[in-house]
């Protein structure tokens, strides 16, 4: 596996630790929609995402799903139970076809203890994910529908976007229904708001290819819609 898709904490480990984890790792492929793990599971693995996008979600008692984050190539998922010994806090489900690699959780944590740079990199990744989740939660409780969707589109642009002149092109890894759940709204509201953004010349889209024509306008919508 190239270092390009290796999770950063592993890439920063001393070579003997990194090689030992790699030798004991188990690759796995997932089709779109396939579950990697569910909230409440107690697996003894930490997974590195080598290809594709996973959604991290929680469900209410009636089965309604809320997407709290995404994991992309080069990131880890399932690290929280490895660190605190408690069950998984959310579901991890493939949005796209994915290739992941399972690392033994105990060996991974032990290696972190010997590699300060790797531990710091994992802390930075977890902090970034916490900021995403916190900002999303705050916007769902206080922001307008356009502001919520604008925020999630900008997040996706940061995560997956490709700059083309003044625009940013994003191959959306999620359906419009999942995009709504990512923003804390129903599919109909997400579709209606996207159409409004398109009519205003802020975005353009065809299928799952989205072009953000005016990132500055989306940022203004995001900020203006906050309480």
Note the main sheet: 4 strands, antiparallel
Quote the average pLDDT. 91
CATH class of the largest domain reads Mainly Beta
CATH topology of the largest domain: Jelly Rolls
Order of helices and strands: HHEEEEEEHEEHHHEEHHEEH
Give the strand order, joined by hyphens, for the main sheet. 1-8-3-6
Distance between the ends: 46 Å
Query: What share of residues is helical?
Result: 40-55%
**What is the total number of structural domains?**
2
- Overall structural class, as computed from helix and strand content, comes to alpha+beta
The CATH level-2 architecture of the largest domain is identified as: Sandwich
Percent of residues in β-strands: 25-35%
- Shape field: globular
